[in-house]
Amino acid sequence: MSNTFRAYQITKDEDGQKVALTTLTESDLMDGDVTVKVEYSAVNYKDGLAMTAKAPVVRRFPLIPGIDFAGTVTASENSEFSAGDKVILNGFGVGEVHSGGFSEVARVDGNWLIPLPSGITTRQAMAVGTAGYTAMLCILALENHGITPESGNILVTGAAGGVGSVAISILSELGYDVVAVTGRSNEHDYLVSLGAVKVIDREHFSKKARMLDKEQWVGGIDVAGGNTLANVLSQIKYGGAVAACGLAESMELPTSVAPFILRGVALYGIDSVMAPVAKRKQAWQRIAEDLDFSKLDTLSNEITLEEVPAVAEAILSGTIRGRTVVKIS
After folding, report:
1. Same domain, 88 and 62
2. Binning pLDDT at 50, 70 and 90, where does residue 202 land?
3. Does residue 232 form part of some domain?
4. Structural domain of residue 80, as residue ranges?
């Protein structure tokens, strides 16, 4: 490995935050007991916020952004990993307070890494990425609630995005009838190709929610928050559940206790950043078993490191379909 490598670096001065693709050395990396040659990363919604400074995601400077990566261990002082091991990282503050994946080299705490499941390549891992891993955490929450394919329809909001695309693919593979919610009518055929049985315009979920609406869905996966989540909750059938993992619309939740105390609806908060390693391993193993990897080509595209800033802007505008993989080295 060369002594120098390319990476994006975010700095901040009195004029604000600046992002540049630059050349660094390993002395520029933060502390950690495992060094990884990064092969692939991905552009997630949080990466878009970090790269554009449209939200205070980055809380330490200078910092290499990128909340996930997959690659090969080159040096390790951690007993769980050795040089040559293939690994995945999602979250744990990487790309926020610890330098992350938009770099040819990363150094991290080995306790944040999980082994790449057998049968998956590093590129496939990032085609799934943090968004897909989050989608699986949502699915596990619904399963643990007792929801089965026979229970009824599952509603997925933000369906054309990363979480939504992977969630629809996996749920349909498991036999669930999935109803997709999107603001992009041109993505109808794409969502059906992933396995959605019906596509609904998100406009129907943008109005102020009733305390209780017609019962339609046994479960839901929501990435939006705000009025969208409030409307979803008002339409969940008795004893159903919603897994909430995003705030693309709003941090607010303008609802009442009615769905919870009159219909016994459960709302599960899904955190992908600090989830324990055991849960991460379970989610990734289920991804390896339950995702139709032939669909990854449909729901993902690949870009170079140089293209990251443009895609970071686009993901915030809601124009990116599915997953964007970054080929690092």
Report:
1. yes
2. very high
3. yes
4. 4-116+296-327
CA gap 153, 173 in Å, rounded: 14
Nearest Cα residue to 142 out of 287, 240, 36: 240
User: Which candidate, 242, 233, 241, places its Cα nearest to that of 214?
Assistant: 233
- Prediction pTM value: 0.92
Is 275 within the bounds of a domain? no
Rg (CA), the chain: 20
Buried b (16+ CB within 10 A) or exposed e, 213-222: eebbbbbbbb
CATH code at 197?
A: 3.40.50.720
What is the rounded average pLDDT of the residues 285-300? 92
Specify whether 249 is located in the same domain as 301. Answer: no
Q: What is the pLDDT of residues 124-172, one digit of tens each?
A: 999 999 999 999 999 999 999 999 999 999 999 999 999 999 999 999 9
294: Cβ–Cβ under 8 A, 6 or more apart, which residues? none
